Amino acid sequence: MTDFDVIVLGAGPAGEVCAGRLAKAGLAVAIVERELVGGECAFYACMPSKALLRPAELLAEVARVPGAAEALCRGVDPAVTLTRRDEVIHDLDDSVQLPWIEHLGITLIRGFGRLEPPAGGERRVSVGDRTYQAGRAVVIATGSAAAFPPIPGLREVEPWTNREATTVKEVPDSLLILGGGVVGVELAQAWSSLGARVVLVEALPRLLAREEPFAGEQVGDALRERGVEVHLGAKATAVAHADAGFTLTLEDGAELACRELLVAVGRRPLTEDIGVDAFGLEPGQTIDVDDQMRVAGHDWLFAIGDVNGRSLLTHMGKYQARAAADVILGRDARVTEDGPRSPRVVFTDPQVAAVGLTFAAALDAGIQARAVDVETSATAGASFYGRGTPGRARIVVDDVRRVIVGATFTGFEVAEFIHAATIAVVGEVPVDRLWHAIPSFPTRSELWLKLLEEYGL
Q: Which pTM does this prediction carry?
């Protein structure tokens, strides 16, 4: 007996999109979720972190605008900010997520889903003491969780991960953040703006190590201006409980004390205990898939989102979900742009928005590349936004093909810049053609003219 056409394990962004697309096409779909429908992004990551960041970002911009700055009389209100954060995450209640599932006729199964061994037949999923059969496919979309580096004492002290750091009800007196990637810098800014004393420790010599060096430098400078203590090239060797919280020991012997400790050094796929070992896959590791999101040797088994390790970004997980659904529906769909050309944003002030390759990565790839830089504020329109803030715009151009292979923008609210750059990069639009795409005056988008002029057009 076939219970459903497709069973999706995980109701995070990728799982939701895949299940929804299949249901709209008329298939019988079940989605299995052991926690909250909406997943990590909706409740513990993307959404609550932006709610924590936005008030201080907006106040900083108001302070830069003549005529508005004079109206400022106080800083961020922590209590109101945390209340708004709770509204955004619906107090960790996912009932608001359920109407769309019911509307599409998707069956929600609450519990821990596990692939059953193939000896009893393929495409079977157990939840508790019940086993369900899928007629067409099973999609693994179980997501990821915070990774813990092998630092003695770290696991034992049970530090915060992004989950606690985005949902805690009170502002800590002091917070030490281990990791200078996206999560680390965003939450360093958020909690410092709410009144916490924040210390950030990064083992590598710069913040945001995967982006252009100037991006990490500008974010680091901004954090220091906000009072964040930043340690670069500092490796932690031990963690222990202390009377007032935690003590972190660095490689050089220095000790840092804090009330709360946040680990933000990366993610691990949630593939333990879901039965993948019965299909030749290693529990706790990413699941390799082809461009149709299929697991090799099992044409009915798909893995989308963080579990396949191709691109740990919500929007790219949704992209993979749409492709997987189309393949299940019999269409010839493939994912081709979830690698280096993925767009990404760091929502600090200044923001960092990037797509494609950095200049160094382009050179490493053997591309005859040229980096073209202008100041983000180098337009008339920019005089009305982010006045006096640092910011740089860079395009990386393949001089042989005369197409843009990467772009990075830093500055106030540059996140919305990145989609135009994504179209140019993914579409491989020749720079000579881009010259004829004229932005309106006076908008910040005139930055594109400045970049192309700097390139020599």
A: 0.95
